[in-house]
Amino acid sequence: DVVLLLEEVGGFAPIEFNMTYTPSFTLYGDGTVIWRDSQALSVESGDNLIRPTPLMVTRLDEGSIQALLAEAIGPGGLGVAIGPYNEMMGADIPSTIFTINAGDIPEPKRVEVVGLSPESHPKNLQVVTALAGLAEKLRTFDTLVNEQPYAPTGYNGVLMPTEQAFGPVVDWPWPD
Question: 114: which of 15, 68, 86, 125 fits an S-S bond (Cβ 3.0–4.6 Å)?
Answer without folding.
Answer: 86
